């Protein structure tokens, strides 16, 4: 069985992933955190999982690439520059980047894409999310993942239709836009709801995370699936065979 190494092993997700590895009897290749050498871990593991910080991503990708080790990236708050680094690394190694490793959220995104594709632009799409008070990025990576799914269903770029800040006299809602609302408080693991609102009717597609272990299980499943795959950029859809 493949061994899995964790970047960010001392964080919330890192600890949760270690628990799932032990639960499933998967070999833990080791962890690397802020002061550790990422190259040592990359050389020791059959697959890597990264839930660290955006600032550390470049060095983690470089280490994985040098060792030829596949890597699952669950770190959120990534910029266009980070995605360019991922695209470049995927020329040499297997890389799976996702805003959420929950299998339920992956299926939700597929449902959102299908709904957006089937309904016309006169159906407004709004995405609301809530997380614990310590979360540092907004909208969440999952909310953006759901927004990308909705935009893909409509064959548009999310960057062109995204609205993430409504305050004051904003005027009427522009047709075809995709709105985002972020709430922070308490110890909420992660709630997401996509609202498709038409004239006189409304569809609500939602997911509520009750335990951080769901993300850890998905991350481990993705890493085991990715081990041994040829170079390329992969998604959680492929892990589920969607």
TL;DR?
The protein has helices spanning 12-24, 38-44, 57-67, 80-89, 103-118, 141-153, 158-161, 213-226, 236-240, and strands at residues 3-7, 27-32, 47-50, 71-73, 94-97, 124-131, 162-163, 178-184, 190-198, 201-209, 232-234. The protein is α/β, with parallel strands linked by helices and 242 residues long.
Poorly predicted regions are none
SSE-based structural type = alpha/beta
Strand order of the main beta sheet, please? 2-1-3-4-5-11
Overall body shape: elongated
Strand content: 15-25%
Give the CATH level 1 class of the largest domain. Answer: Alpha Beta
Please give a structural write-up.
The chain is an alpha/beta fold and 242 residues long. It folds into two domains: 3-101 and 213-240, NAD(P)-binding Rossmann-like Domain (Rossmann fold), CATH 3.40.50.720; 103-209, Dihydrodipicolinate Reductase, domain 2, CATH 3.30.360. It contains nine helices and eleven strands. The strands form two sheets. Strands 2-1-3-4-5-11 form a six-stranded parallel beta sheet, sandwiched between helices. Strand 4, helix 4 and strand 5 form a beta-alpha-beta unit. Helix 1 (12-24) packs across helix 8, helix 3 runs parallel beside helix 4 (80-89) and helix 5 (103-118) packs parallel to helix 6. The two termini are 25 Å apart. The mean pLDDT is 95.
Layout of SSEs?
Blueprint: E1 3-7, H1 12-24, E2 27-32, H2 38-44, E3 47-50, H3 57-67, E4 71-73, H4 80-89, E5 94-97, H5 103-118, E6 124-131, H6 141-153, H7 158-161, E7 162-163, E8 178-184, E9 190-198, E10 201-209, H8 213-226, E11 232-234, H9 236-240
Parallel strand pairs: 1-2, 1-3, 3-4, 4-5, 5-11, 6-8, 7-8
Antiparallel strand pairs: 6-9, 9-10
Helix pairs in contact: 1-8, 2-3, 3-4, 5-6
């Amino acid at each position: 069985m493949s061994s899995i190494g964790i970047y960010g092993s001392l964080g919330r997700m890192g600890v949760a992933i270690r628990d799932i590895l032990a639960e499933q009897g998967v070999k833990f290749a080791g962890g690397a955190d802020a002061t550790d050498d990422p190259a040592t871990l990359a050389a020791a593991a059959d697959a890597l999982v990264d839930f660290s910080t955006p600032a550390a991503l470049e060095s983690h990708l470089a280490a994985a690439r040098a060792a030829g080790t596949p890597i699952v990236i669950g770190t959120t708050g990534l910029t266009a520059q980070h995605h360019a680094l991922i695209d470049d690394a995927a020329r040499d190694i297997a890389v799976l980047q996702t805003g959420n490793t929950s299998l339920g959220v992956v299926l939700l995104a597929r449902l959102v894409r299908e709904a957006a594709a089937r309904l016309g632009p006169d159906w407004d799409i709004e995405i609301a999310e809530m997380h614990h008070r310590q979360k540092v990025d907004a909208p969440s990576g999952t909310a953006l993942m759901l927004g990308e799914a909705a935009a893909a269903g409509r064959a548009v770029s999310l960057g062109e239709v995204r609205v993430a800040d409504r305050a004051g006299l904003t005027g009427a809602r522009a047709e075809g836009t995709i709105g985002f609302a972020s709430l922070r408080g308490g110890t909420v693991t992660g709630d997401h709801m996509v609202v498709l609102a038409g004239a006189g009717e409304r569809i609500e597609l939602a997911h509520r995370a009750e335990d951080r272990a769901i993300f850890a299980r998905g991350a481990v499943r993705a890493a085991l699936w990715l081990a041994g795959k040829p170079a390329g950029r992969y998604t959680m859809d492929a892990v589920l065979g969607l």
